[in-house]
Design goal:
Strand content: 5-15%
Strand order of the largest sheet: 1-9-8-5-4-2-3
CATH class of the largest domain: Alpha Beta
Shape: globular
CATH topology of the largest domain: Aspartate Aminotransferase, domain 2
Structural class: alpha/beta
CATH superfamily of the largest domain: Type I PLP-dependent aspartate aminotransferase-like (Major domain)
Number of helices: 13
CATH architecture of the largest domain: 3-Layer(aba) Sandwich
Amino acid sequence: MKYIPYAQQWIEDDDIEEVSKVLKGDWLTTGPKVDEFEEKFANFAGSKYSVAVSSGTAALHAAAFAAGIDEGDEAIVSPMTFAASANCILYQGGRPVFTDIDKKTYNIDPEKIEEKINDDTKAIVPVDYTGQPCEMDKIMEMAKENDLTVIEDSSHAVGATYKGKKIGSIADMSIFSFHPVKHIATGEGGMITTDSKELYDKLRQFRTHGITKDEDKLIYNEGPWFYEQQFLGYNYRLTDMQCALGISQLKKIDKFLKRRREIADQYTEFFKDLRGIIRPYQDELSNSAWHLYVIQLELEELKADRKKIFNEFLDKKLGVQAHYIPVYYHPYYQNLGYERGLCPNAEWLYDRIISIPMYPKMKDEDVKEVVNRIESVIKKYQK
């Protein structure tokens, strides 16, 4: 039986050739391919500026810094995400305020966001879970009314749209990840998009130790060699080799997105009559990027819990996952004083979800094979 992973990059000969050109050239890092990748990604996302960094986590950290999150500040975030979405707040000395999700969309609930805003709130970090955009118009309106910065974690949402607008062009800052399981791959890598020149300048300086050579920003200037570290930044630079790969991959993004949506449509059709499974919500006002296809188990219809079914999927050589463990379940967050029960909807959902294989390199026969194996397990446990 063939193993089918939950995700996989799609690297072709032309991608390799573009990286090889850089390896044979003069610049391996901090060279022209970085600027080119940033410009092309900004054009794709519909933003004025893009800043390339070493990972999606680095992008979140840079955005948290640029938003001014500091000791004593709070930032509102969904618990249904990878830990980095909340960790970036801690990196800056702030406190993540976990806010429950909508049980239909699995995204953070705007009404619950409003309940959590107080004088200490500095930012909102909505997460486009699985590639399905959050209700960004409501979130941006709330942020504007309360003078908050919105950092949209769009790691799952490269190429998604919300009410006709590209994700990356709506929030104060949107962050993206180019990990191999994402829509385009640079190995590791990330990007922040923004329309603010002020934020753009902060982000660029933050990724390079807080150092500037800009004569207009220097407090002292001793000569053409001079540079200053003006705040504590990090080495979050992305190499020219990675950017060359990113540029090549970005040329194929329409093909990758089209295939992801085809696979999602096939799954949705195949599972429509399978009792015991709830298919993911599809918002008519948005166009998901379909990073993940997450099925929800109707435990009331099944004679087994998620763990038993998950293990049977593994036995059938399906690369399944559970995205995500609510962040505050992790021991590190428990040691900070967070307790279970904070977000009942997210906790309820976590017990029922399984991510199934989804990547553009899948063939139609792979999709059908995934469905057949899932059906064989689910039907065995139907009441």
